[in-house]
Amino acid sequence: MEKHFSNTVEVPSEARQEVLDLMARLNWSNRYAAERIGVARNIVQRMSQGETFFRQEHVDKLIAAPEMMKRKLEEKKKRQESNQTNHMMKEISEWQLGVLNDYLMFYSYEELHQLTGVSRTLLMGIVNRKRTAVQLSVYEKLADKLYKFDRRYSRLQAKNRIKELREEKGISQEQLAKELGVDVSLVRGVEKQVNEPATDTWQMFSEYFGVWVSYLIGASDRRVR
Questions:
Q1: Where do the HTH cro/C1-type domain residues begin and end (predicted)?
Q2: pLDDT tens digits, residue range 166-200?
C-alpha cells in the first residue's frame, strides 16, 4: 500500500493515465515532460512508477497538463503531415513549362531564383526537361509566383517596337523579311499586332536588332544589357 503524508492529495487516476499516455505518444522523457508541465523531474518519475499522492500544487499542474499536451500532439501531427505533403511529387505541365520559358525572356535564372525561392539548378532542370516533376513545396512556390500568370494576357497588349527599329535601320518590311528569311506577312502582322509570334520568333527579331526581347515587345525600356 502506498504511503502518503497528510499534506498530499491523490492524482485522479484518469488524469495520471492520460499524462502517461500522452508522454508516450509525444515521445517525451520524464525530464522533458516535467519541464513542460512545470514540476520537478522526480514528480513525473515517481508518478510513472505508480505513485499517486503529491502536494496539491503538483496535482493541480498534472491535472491541467493533458490540455497542453494534446495541443502539442496536434502540432506534431500537423508537422508530420506537412513533411509528408512536401515530399509528394507534382508533375510540371507543358503549359507551366511554357510560362516558365516566358519569364526567362525577361528574367535571368538568378532573378527567377530571387522571385520564387527555387534554386537555379532546379529551375534549369525543369526548363531543360531533366526534371518533369518536383516536390509539392517547390511546385507551390512556382504556382504562387509564376503560374498565376493570366493566359488571356497577350504580350501584344504592349506596343512592340518592330516598326520603330525597322525604320531606324531605314529598311522596308520586304527587306526585313528577306534578311530574316521569313514571309513578309509575318513582319506586317507583328507590326500591326494582329498576331503573336512564337517565342523563338521574338528571339529572332531580338538578335537581328541587337536588343533585349523585353525591349522589343515593349515590356521594358532597357534596350540592351
A1: 162-216
A2: 999 999 999 999 999 999 999 998 888 777 677 67
Sign of the alpha-carbon torsion through 15, 21, 22, 28: positive
**pTM, to two decimals:** 0.40
All domains of the chain in start order, with CATH: 8-86 (1.10.260), 88-156 (1.10.260), 159-224 (1.10.260.40)
The greatest distance separating any two alpha carbons of the chain, rounded to the nearest whole angstrom, comes to: 108
> Among 223, 191, 221, 215, which residue's Cα sits nearest to residue 105?
215
SS3 annotation, 200-221: HHHHHHHHHHCCCHHHHCCCCC
**Which residue is listed with cell 497577350?**
154
CA 15: distance to chain centroid?
A: 42
Distance of CA 47 to the CA centre of its chain: 45
Mean pLDDT in residue range 14-32 = 92
**Banded pLDDT at 154 (limits 50, 70, 90):** very low
Whole-angstrom Cα distance, residue 198 to residue 204?
10
Q: What type of residue is 116?
A: T
CA distance 114 to 33: 42
Question: Sign of torsion, CA 14 43 48 9?
Answer: negative
pLDDT at 157: 46
